[in-house]
Amino acid sequence: MPHGCNGRILRVDLSKEKILTETLDDIFYRRYVGGEGFIAYFLLKEVKPGIDPLGPSNKLIFASGPVTGAPIPGNGRSSVGAKSPLTGGFGEAESGGFWGVELKRSGFDAIIIEGKAKRPVYLWVHDREAEIREASHLWGKDTGEAQRIIREELGDDLIRVAQIGPGGERLVRYACIINDLKDVAGRTGMGAVMGSKNLKAVAVRGRGRVNVVDSEKLKELTNWLIQNMNDVIGWAHNYGTGASIAAYAMIGNLPTRNFRDGNFSNAEAIDAEAVKNTVRIGMDGCYACPVRCKKVVRIGDPWSVDPVYGGPEYETLAALGSNCGIDNLNAICKANEICNRYSLDTISTGATIAFAMECYENGLLTNEDTDGLKLNFGNAEAMVQMVEMIGQRRGLGDLLAEGVKRAAEKIGKNAEKFAIHIKGQEIPMHEPRLKRALGLGYVISPTGADHQHNLHDMGITGGGRDLNRFAALGILEPIPLEDLGPRKVKALIYHVDWCVLNNCLLLCNFIPWDYLQETEIVRSVTGWNTTAWELMKIGERVTTMARAFNVREGFTKEDDWLPERFFHPTSSGALSETSVDPKKLEEARGTYYEMMGWDENGVPKKAKLEELGIGWVAELLR
Amino acid sequence: MPHGCNGRILRVDLSKEKILTETLDDIFYRRYVGGEGFIAYFLLKEVKPGIDPLGPSNKLIFASGPVTGAPIPGNGRSSVGAKSPLTGGFGEAESGGFWGVELKRSGFDAIIIEGKAKRPVYLWVHDREAEIREASHLWGKDTGEAQRIIREELGDDLIRVAQIGPGGERLVRYACIINDLKDVAGRTGMGAVMGSKNLKAVAVRGRGRVNVVDSEKLKELTNWLIQNMNDVIGWAHNYGTGASIAAYAMIGNLPTRNFRDGNFSNAEAIDAEAVKNTVRIGMDGCYACPVRCKKVVRIGDPWSVDPVYGGPEYETLAALGSNCGIDNLNAICKANEICNRYSLDTISTGATIAFAMECYENGLLTNEDTDGLKLNFGNAEAMVQMVEMIGQRRGLGDLLAEGVKRAAEKIGKNAEKFAIHIKGQEIPMHEPRLKRALGLGYVISPTGADHQHNLHDMGITGGGRDLNRFAALGILEPIPLEDLGPRKVKALIYHVDWCVLNNCLLLCNFIPWDYLQETEIVRSVTGWNTTAWELMKIGERVTTMARAFNVREGFTKEDDWLPERFFHPTSSGALSETSVDPKKLEEARGTYYEMMGWDENGVPKKAKLEELGIGWVAELLR
């Protein structure tokens, strides 16, 4: 096994109450790496197609990466995956923080959870051991309370807890898994899978050391980041995400009222500068990271917010803010806190409420449906109340807990046109009408619309340092945002490969290590004689494996498509005269398939699978 | 333009006696790099399909690379290309030595020769200037004499001369271009193209400096090589090529009697150790290289060999030795000297004589055809005489000067079965029956069978350092020689990409810089923020451009095939019970096309061309 890793994973069968330790060899690590790579491997190998994502046959996989816990900034992430109850396809999400590092130090690199416990349980992992423990007393408790009790009964305040709140317990299809009450693996409903297994929490503690090959080199890279902080990632260090909201509103990148409108007049009220100047009491960070990009907010009555639940990221500010037509920062922070208490993904929660608001304003939902709640765009109180109702599956919340796709089907009456999702997952908070490659990225993401498989396309259009960065991959000239031609598709592919690589290594997507620095990090931690070539191929490999999982589940190219709304301009604002051309999108999708070595239906070809060293996947697609 | 380059090329129209200087920008360099990349670019852009390779419409392109002349070992190479008179397709060959460095220092990175001079001329390039000079007095002179006269009349003994001898003048289809009398751009008949233009020589001299970005880093890498010389490239330092001939004979890798037989009993008599112990008087090298892998031999009467013509490389020892059934080292050295005097490619010369010997032994050529010469395998005197006859196009030499493909057509009577070539180019001296990926490499090489587009596949099968090297590209496990399945095809592709990259950078294929060291070299010379990803993509890009050139010339997948002989075992020796399975070869060829993003006929697809940043090539293939 490589340096940086334990070579050991935990397999927990909740049905049989059996715990096994398995070992993995160096070549396995080098091919599947960790994180999303491990998840794609085990899901393809062990989860049969067609199973119920919320049934006992689904498997929930927690995974660290080879660099997790090494002394280098940006390696506090961990990843969790399963067949998604939201999309029915490949499900995976990552969170920052400390939990993954603690897992690594406990002596395990990953945990595979199988079956379903007869009654609520939690898993206690520490120092190369694991134990399934009773959790009936925790069931129904919010995350803060549950964490307090777990730490108390295990007698250790440094225990890190990944858990679900009542939202996950109640199988809200977009329930998340939350670590330390604020570090969130948000997308694809992994919290619902956890709930379906009667698993309240995974508590971890370890005292192991993460051995690396060249700690001097890592120190050098860390120093580079510290010395260049303001230059390369000052925005995150000073504001965290969301500093650009006002600018986004001007250029049309701020989703507004369920992606319907193009202008949000009071955008400054909800951006990260406003957060800093009003409710922010400090910044928090992940393991070993000097950037500290995570806001901590405190608010008094009436919407009192407890700082232990962190503060809203950009996606949250937009999803529960502008996308619901809301400019009340306190309300957004409160909704964020409730999401973290209940373990709800803030993106899907906000997007689902925005959908309901548009249905309400168009008469598809009535006061009867909402129990009298005036669910208009901009109604902050209604939004906050709705979040709580979703977490409790109370009233309309029960319907909205299913996500926009299923809710629209149940509402009928053409509600589908307000359901802004891809493959059943609600779309994150950037504008496909503005950022065309981002739109295609949402379309082809194996997890449904997802911003951690396709961060943004600023880097491709930006000059200076950004362009120099991409040049290292042979992208030598800037490409305009509106371009959706082959050069943009290529840039997207390289960008996605790199994002997915980071989801395997579990390196942060924000810290702008260039490709050579990132190669150095992997070499210095693992001892692998690796190159950017091998690393980019990891991203391509895992992207293709996730695709294969979806193909096997019956997804077709028709599922790789944007909601109709994006083919029309916004009602006002910067994008009131432009939209995605469906013909160009179709062409770009075809180009994407062909560049990826997939056939015209998006099915990976045998030769490509062989080239990626995963010829065995071809057997699964027959 | 990047550091290490002049940003300036010379365009010489011999018909109009016009000389132009053109400039190239940084992006052009970064995309097409130099050497084979420049050649592929200009041939595709400027040479119309269907032209006569020996007519005035062909263009002859000399090119250095960005690292040529920088202070780093292995950068003494230069490249020359044109439409090949031997294959009718993409022609390109490289040589080591000093000429390319001198060109770089003269202020130009490449020279494009167009048209045809009315009478013999030579080109004199120096200090940012160039001049077309009368060469009638040089025409018919051998290379040594011509070089002496040129240096004398220009009054400078340090002038480097790339030239043809009487073989090139007489349009021997596999005539080479020779620098410093011993550094040879051997394959694809570039010397015939030069002869067809009435161009005897390109003499260069320069006093410019090659500026680099980080000379300290280059010094560090040089020191690494010097300190690890014996470990990483001791074989070349101590013996030069050909040290393994005895071992090759045992395992069946030594082509014997026109690839017919598998055993060559006296192999030790012609290997590099025998050379060292008998005729060798020293070792010579290329610019800035401490390896010094080039033998210098001197022999007295009757086969006196002048040491200025160097000594035989492995390919020469086998082609004019074992493949002609000859174990007389003096004869081989003499034949090598004649080839260098006449500018004949030793591989094609030896292979063509071996072909003639087999025809002779089978009665397809008679004493009448040979003017009484007993052209049996093993007849060293006849071989030496035949080389001279080819250079003079005298008697049977005139027929053999056409290469085995055309000679077999003229001989008829089934002579084709003895014509061991691919696309018209004679096969170099490694055994496709043993090294299966090498066989496929010969098959798909755009230049016809060629060992500089596909060096060998030892690295993929070897352990230790070699395996560690390939691991950097994600090839994690050894692959047996006899494997021709998808994992071998993939390894071949990566290997070819890297060889072709080196043909663009003009870095030596022998010095085993690992991929990261090579990346460091390019970064340190040019200042490009590059990675192994970008570099490997250069190899893929240029391979695909060369393929496109051939597609446009009408080559089809039927041209990508081995001679029938390799589908049968050798008559004796280690390969007497094994051969290439044509079904497996066909499958592997298909896999190769698919992995390359080409269609089932081997035509590069539009999306792949776009991905490689050469969408404009698609227009040429319509």
Structural commentary:
The structure is a homodimer of 622-residue chains. The first copy, chain A, is an alpha+beta fold and 622 residues long. The first copy, chain A, has three domains: 198 residues, Aldehyde Ferredoxin Oxidoreductase,  A, domain 1, CATH 3.60.9.10; 179 residues, Aldehyde Ferredoxin Oxidoreductase Protein, subunit A, domain 2, CATH 1.10.569; 185 residues, Aldehyde Ferredoxin Oxidoreductase Protein, subunit A, domain 3 (Orthogonal Bundle). In chain A, 40% of the residues lie in helices and 12% in strands. The first copy, chain A, is built from 25 helices and 16 strands. In chain A, the strands form four sheets. Chain A has a six-stranded mixed sheet. In chain A, helix 7 packs antiparallel against helix 21 and helix 20 packs across helix 23. The first copy, chain A, is globular and about 60 Å long. The mean pLDDT of chain A is 95. At the A-B interface, helix 1, helix 19, helix 20, helix 21 and helix 22 of A face helix 1, helix 19, helix 20, helix 21 and helix 22 of B.
Return Rg of chain A in Å. Answer: 22 Å
* Major sheet description of chain A: 6 strands, mixed
Q: Based on the structure, what is the oligomeric state of the protein chains?
A: homodimer
Number of helical elements of chain A: 25
Strand content of chain A: 5-15%
Structural classification of chain A: alpha+beta
CATH superfamily heading of the largest domain in chain A: Aldehyde ferredoxin oxidoreductase, N-terminal domain
- State the end-to-end distance of chain A: 33 Å
- Tell me the strand order in the biggest sheet of chain A: 2-1-6-3-4-5
Please tell me the CATH architecture of the largest domain in chain A by its name: 4-Layer Sandwich
Q: Which CATH C-level class of the largest domain in chain A is it? A: Alpha Beta
Question: Might you state the CATH topology name of the largest domain in chain A?
Answer: Aldehyde Ferredoxin Oxidoreductase,  A, domain 1
Biggest chain-to-chain interface with counts: A-B, 43 and 43 residues
Overall number of strands of chain A: 16
Q: Residue ranges of chain A: pLDDT <50 for 5 or more in a row? A: none
Q: How many domain units of chain A?
A: 3
Taken from the alpha-carbon principal axes, the silhouette of chain A is globular
